[in-house]
Design brief:
Elements lengths: L3 H16 L8 E7 L3 E3 L2 E3 L2 E10 L2 E8 L2 E7 L1 E4 L8 E6 L5 E7 L5 E4 L1
Antiparallel strand pairs: 1-4, 2-3, 4-5, 5-6, 7-10, 8-9, 9-10
Length: 117
């Protein structure tokens, strides 16, 4: 059963996905629930359900995290493709040189894509 908060989140994500440009959708999109504050490229990402968009352009690749359809951050990323689809979405986190929990990789369930930060 959906409560108001989940229903509002569902519609927010639906609107977000429907309004993304075709260019942004060219490489890949997914949703990712982050349960604790992590850092990517030295930038803070607070807990929440994010739309994740990745786009490669030759040697350059970038990923954008959006919370409630609003741009949160865009950072460089290395995109790799696995031979088969991953069973589950998994993100790995490890302390960076300053001791902050830094996002290292994301593997998306049902996709072959892995993002490496």
């Amino acid at each position: 059963m959906l409560n108001r908060k989940n229903l509002a989140l569902f519609f927010t994500l639906l609107i977000f996905l429907l309004t993304m440009s075709p260019v942004a959708m060219a490489d890949g999109t997914a949703t990712l629930e982050i349960s604790k504050t992590v850092y990517v490229g030295g930038k803070e990402i607070k807990p929440g359900l994010y739309g994740v968009l990745w786009k490669s352009g030759g040697a350059q690749a970038e990923v954008t995290f959006k919370l409630y359809g609003k741009l949160t951050i865009t950072v460089p990323v290395k995109i790799t493709e696995n031979d088969k689809k991953f069973d589950n979405t998994v993100m790995t986190v490890a302390p960076d040189s300053s001791g902050k929990e830094a996002l290292q990789t994301i593997r998306f369930g049902g996709k072959k894509t892995q993002l490496e930060f």
